[in-house]
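Question: does this match?
>
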Amino acid sequence: MGTREEGRVTALERAIAERTPLPGLATTSPLHGLRRRSVGSWDVVAQSVAAVAPAGVVLVSPASLGQTAGSFAFLDLAVTVVIIVLLAATISVFARRMASTGSLYTFVSRGLGPTLGIIAGTALALGYAAIAISTLVGASRRTVGLIGRATGDAPPTWILPVVIAVFAILIGSVIVCGLRPSTRIMLVIEIAAVATILALSIVVFISTGWNVGALVPDVSEPFSVSTVLSGVGIALIAFVGFESGTALGPESKRPLATIPRALMWTVIAVGVVYLVGAAAQISGDAAIEGSGAEGELPLARLVESAGFAGAAPLIDLIIALSFLACSLATTTALVRLCFALSREGLLPDVFGRTSMRFGTPAPGAVILTTGVAAVPLVWIVVSGSADGIRSFTTPSAIVGYVGAYVLVCIATPVFLVKIGEFTWRAALPAILAGTALGAALVHDVATKMTTDATGAVIGLAIAIVTATICLVRVRRRPELRAHLGLYDSPVASDSIGGVPAAPKK
């Protein structure tokens, strides 16, 4: 045994000493230009958590879930957490085997082929853009509200467009300057925001005597699958974007281990925060008559009712920062996705160019950040206010994200069969998550079509037109098919042997 171990050590030492280049390794990655292996696990977690915006969601969304699901709100949220954990396990099947800035687009392309891959990529891009726009506007409006509180006067109407433009410039600049400063900013913001949310939730629990009886569904209420699907549909919007950390795969250290671990950490941590925040909201509503029945700051009113006056400005600030970090994270993911699509020939070359100084897709970042800001600015010019924009961005986000999630769930067992590694243990999470997400998506779209179909129709139309353009481009240039679904691969400089020496003339 000792001789065998000594032989291994000797072989390793000899390989290090000789540094013989390995044949067959390319000198550059298909995703060259990015700073490969430059960020760690916490950076990926920060990206994923910020894209979810847990603090903003906890402070704004529980009232909507309660109004839809009634006493089943907490149960619906718990069911959604389970679905998202299954989805994270599904995405990890791919993330353990390949790293790409294309995220779910690359995974679906590898599992189901280029046509469905393009549809998934288009849907994901729609989701990223919709959330980036919505949270940019949300952060700006909260900031304007804080300015009004500080001055004691209603801010002039031109303040909101100015704040949107300033935030967009900030987001674009941070993305251009590199992942590390971007993710560190997001990490600090979200840690502070989540810590504050948990503290406020504990304050509410203490004030209500830790009343958790309200979390149990009231069996006297009418129960239906439709009600559960409606609740899950609302709760899903709280989790979309968690997969965006996969877009940092080529730039992260040990991506095949880091990305799956970061995804699971994110959904579990965020799920716990949501369950605690929602439990505090439901418990407080049951104990304090009238609290959280209307308006956008139910938890703030509950905290003030518990004796902490003036909590609203603090919570407005937390929401503004959380939404700003979310807009930064989703725009970052959108830039990385478009980078992959450009390298594969589906988008103009400008989106695939990188800055030599920063190692980022700087031209694409500038263009896409400008586009994200332009949508609300034009909306405000045309309509005179930012009211109503979420009626378009929220349905677009649901259609885009959940559509991509369903496709990656379908792609997973097919991919496992293709590579000869299919097992029911690996495929079952995809089957369960895909079935649940598909049912929620169909129910949500059907509901929107019978109530306010405008937002859902516009989102679907944008996705269909974009996907059609890409598919036509592939049909006209069949050679592009061989490039679709590119992912990062080891290069000569990654090996002990390094890059082969140039032949002597």
User: Anything to note?
Assistant: The chain has 17 helices and no strands. Residues 39-491 form a domain with the Amino acid/polyamine transporter I fold (CATH 1.20.1740.10).
